[in-house]
Every structure is written in structure tokens, then in C-alpha cells.
Design a protein that fits this description.
mainly alpha; elongated
Length: 190
């Protein structure tokens, strides 16, 4: 009975309609927890969430290497790669300046790299700085969303104008012009 059920499940996964390849549906059917690791996220707030998670791990008392490795598993790319690389180097005993140097080459992780190196030099708390970085990321996403909404408002006024202008001309201006023209042409100019 179980062999027949497995055969039917396999046939359903191969034949089932929908977007995606067979291996994606098979991976999702087995619930592979590592399937999404390192996949770029379409969530604009994923980076801020990863920063908040890193700050929470650091506040809980985790060492920077352990916290970075834990967050790297669910962080969006390229932050995940930068955190994993820094965690590996820190676990091997590298200086923080060297461990976070590679993260400074990407614009999206440059601020974290700068904060981590400064924290290692001065001994200041990295968790508070990462929390501020998450707040800045949220503010940037909010600003981009507001700009996109304003841009959409401007872009939609063109088609609306093209739709309403003929109606305005036909129902508002044309009757007035026709009425004036009829009076002027019918009675003559005084």
C-alpha cells in the first residue's frame, strides 16, 4: 500500500500544474530546512530583520562569531555570505579587523563591517549599533516606498488626464462653444 502511495505522490509531483521545476516541488514536499539558506529575499525588510536578530543574539550574550553564524543561516544574500565568512574567520581566531574586511567590499554590508571593526577596536557594544543599523534600514525602505507611491501618483495622472480630457471637452466646453456660436452666427454680430 505504501509503495502505491509513494508512486502516486511521485506522479502527482511530476504531472501537477504550476510554476517551478520538479526538484523544487520534491524539495518542498520533503520539507528540507536548508532549502532556503542563501536564497536572495524579495522582502525589503529582510535585511533589517537580520540586523535585529544579530543584535538580539549579541544581547543574549552570544559571542560575535556564534551570533554571526546563527544569523547567517536565515539572512538574505549578500549579508548571509558576509556573516558566515566573518563567523568562520573569527572562530578560527582571526583578528576582527581581518574577519570583517571582506564584508566591507559590498555596499549593503559595508556599514555592518565598519561597525563591527569599530566595536572590536574600541570595545563598544555592537548590539546597540546593529539595532541602529536596523532602524536606518527600515527608514530607508520606508523612504523608498514613499517615493515609489509618490511616483505612482504622478504616473497615473497622465492616463487619467487622457481619459477625462475628452469627456471634459465634449460635455463641458463643446456645449458652451456651440451655444455661443449659435447665438452669434444666428443673430449676427451687433
Amino acid at each position: 500500500m505504501s509503495a502505491a502511495a509513494a508512486l502516486l505522490l511521485g506522479a502527482a509531483l511530476v504531472v501537477a500544474p504550476g510554476a517551478g521545476a520538479v526538484h523544487v516541488r520534491l524539495r518542498d514536499a520533503h520539507g528540507d530546512p536548508d532549502a532556503d539558506a542563501g536564497v536572495p529575499s524579495s522582502d525589503p525588510l529582510a535585511l533589517a530583520g537580520a540586523y535585529d536578530l544579530l543584535a538580539a543574539c549579541l544581547r543574549a550574550g552570544m559571542p560575535v562569531a556564534s551570533a554571526a553564524a546563527a544569523v547567517a543561516e536565515q539572512a538574505p544574500q549578500p549579508l548571509a555570505a558576509a556573516l558566515q565568512r566573518a563567523a568562520n574567520l573569527l572562530a578560527l581566531g582571526a583578528e576582527p579587523e581581518i574577519a570583517w574586511q571582506q564584508a566591507g567590499t559590498d555596499p549593503s554590508t559595508e556599514a555592518l563591517s565598519r561597525l563591527a571593526r569599530r566595536s572590536a577596536r574600541s570595545g563598544s557594544a555592537l548590539a546597540d549599533a546593529v539595532t541602529e543599523l536596523a532602524a536606518e534600514q527600515r527608514t530607508a525602505v520606508e523612504g523608498a516606498a514613499a517615493a515609489a507611491a509618490e511616483r505612482a501618483g504622478v504616473l497615473i495622472s497622465g492616463p487619467l488626464g487622457l481619459c477625462f480630457l475628452p469627456a471634459f471637452l465634449c460635455l463641458g466646453i463643446a456645449p458652451v462653444v456651440i451655444g455661443l456660436a449659435t447665438r452669434v452666427l444666428g443673430q449676427g454680430v451687433p
